[in-house]
Write a structure and sequence with these properties.
282 residues; alpha/beta; 12 helices; globular; eight-stranded mixed sheet; 8 strands
Length: 282
């Protein structure tokens, strides 16, 4: 099986490791704008060879794991270059723009729009983790637009990787993910910014930072180059989620100013049910 991965970072590299462990005959080819990433990926055993878009005609599977702004540009070229039986997957965190970008492409039937909800705050080839996708949810959009035999190939891969499958239209995906992922990253970045600006002595931050602070700002270590295009593409839904978040923050501030601690308690107590929701998800 010939697998071409565009973008050898956390997601692309982790996918490469899983595919190699699941398919004995898999040959992994890497395509990346950063030549150093390709060299590192070969050294780490993530890929076997470097490749170019011109060689995609022979691919069984192409994984597009690049920043979402790059994906919009490169996916049509990928679909231009593939063979009749090639399955193309993308793994971006926004789905409406990329689905719209290839809606009328002659090889749209070869494309499956996916979003495996898995990852860490790290990036680059060295961030790749075997088993990253096990027991994680994979959102698939517009599955009916992918030819059935290629759907089956993709589903077989996801099943072997141990992923849970959810089907969703692109607009619903982008709205929901703004709340549970995109807003989380903004909150983390801005909390980190607030603390860094307030605490000029970095030693104080590290001395006093507990596990709660570390877990809350973990996402602030994520790549701005990856997340800025995500916020741009999902601007409408991100702004909506931010407005609601700001309302809640302002309400909490108002309760503190009024010394209404019973209401402060109730605000937190009512939110505690999120434990039940998250536990039920597992």
């Amino acid at each position: 099986m010939k697998v071409y991965i565009l973008g050898i970072g956390l997601i692309g590299g982790s996918m490469a490791l899983d595919i190699q462990s699941l398919y004995d005959n898999a040959i992994i080819y890497g395509i990346d704008a950063n030549e150093n990433h390709l060299d590192e990926a070969i050294r780490l055993g993530l890929i076997h060879q470097k490749a170019t878009l011109e060689s995609l005609i022979d691919a069984d599977l192409v994984l597009v794991a690049v920043p979402v702004d790059v994906g919009l540009v490169i996916l049509p070229s990928v679909l231009d270059a593939i063979g009749e039986d090639t399955l193309v997957l993308d793994v971006g965190s926004t789905k409406s723009p990329i689905c719209e970008a290839v809606a009328n492409h002659a090889n749209r039937r070869n494309f499956m729009a996916t979003h495996p909800i898995a990852g860490t705050e790290f990036s680059g080839p060295s961030a790749a983790v075997k088993g990253l996708f096990f027991d994680k949810t994979n959102i698939i959009c517009e599955v009916e637009k992918t030819t059935f035999k290629l759907q089956e190939r993709g589903m077989e891969l996801f099943k072997k990787m141990g992923m849970r499958i959810r089907y969703m239209d692109p607009k619903s995906h982008d709205k929901h993910i703004a709340y549970v992922s995109h807003l989380s990253h903004i909150s983390s970045f801005m909390l980190g910014k607030t603390v860094v600006e307030k605490e000029k002595d970095e030693r104080d931050i590290f001395d006093m930072a507990g596990s709660g602070f570390e877990s809350t700002v973990r996402l602030a270590k994520s790549s701005p180059a990856m997340w800025t295009p995500i916020f741009k593409q999902n601007k409408e839904h991100v702004l909506e989620s931010l407005e609601e978040y700001i309302v809640n923050l302002t309400q909490f501030k108002t309760l503190l100013e009024a010394e209404n601690y019973e209401a402060v308690y109730q605000e937190m107590h009512s939110t505690n049910r999120i434990k039940e929701i998250l536990n039920g998800k597992k």
